[in-house]
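Lab meeting, action items carried over

1. Structure of the two-component assembly. Owner: GW. Status: complete.
Input record:
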Amino acid sequence: QLYYQVLNFAMIVSSALMIWKGLIVVTGSESPIVVVLSGSMEPAFHRGDLLFLTNFHDDPIKAGEIVVFKVEGRDIPIVHRVIKVHAKENGYIKFLTKGDNNEVDDRGLYKEGQNWLEKKDVVGRARGFLPYVGMVTIVMNDYPKFKYALLAVMGAYVLLKRES
Amino acid sequence: LRKNLEDFTGPREKSDLAIVSFDIYADILNGEKNIFDWNVKQLFVYLSVEYSTKNNALNQVVLWDKILLRGDNPRLFLKDMKSKYFFFDDGNGLKANRNVTFTLSWNVIPNAGILPLITGSGQLSVPFPDNYETTKSY
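Predicted assembly:
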């Protein structure tokens, strides 16, 4: 019976992983769902909102689009708007971003000496959004004890649940 | 949707800088319906220019933006506006550029759901001056 429970649990975990990997393939983005971490895009997005991204290779980057990007060497994804685009005929694109709620553009956030972002820095373009839902992730990040408690409860529930 | 503007370019360091002033008369609609329906939280409206230069096949620069919250008037009647952001070219492609196109667009931010980017009709294409302004003080 325990064997069955463990297998059941493993199946749930692998299905979840498969769905996530499938999303990565379908959207073309390495991180198709991101949580907004700062208030720099208010009043459109607030901390804790969830964003759905796509990153199709042939999608041109246009001024006005909301993109999620990572600065080289840093892990944190930033969600801001594209305000300048310069594209060459060979397909090379460089662009500048700015948060709606910020006074200045993002040059201060880029790497030392870097003035523009390139396609390779883009994690995805924001295509859809859900408010508040991402708060769970932020809470789990800020209070790791909460995360462990949640995992322990979930694990215990799945393993102890008895089939009637 | 109509934009009228006066502009002049001036060299700054090594890139062309354009100083533009404009009027915007616009009615933001969603077909026949009110653009601010139950699922629209705000509109991020922006004026952008698009043009080609020898250096770059495509350039787009946002000159001005405004946030319209649910409840604000979707009719814009703005005169003598200055661009909010510096209109620098990546190079010297603004001087004597025959075709600089001004477009008003908006990003619909829903309460939940898809984030569409809509372009307004009524774009305006303008030729830029052949010479730099040297005597005006800004």
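2. GW to write a short summary for the group page. Key points so far: Chain A has two domains: 33-131, 134-163. Helices of chain A lie at 2-27, 135-142, 144-160.
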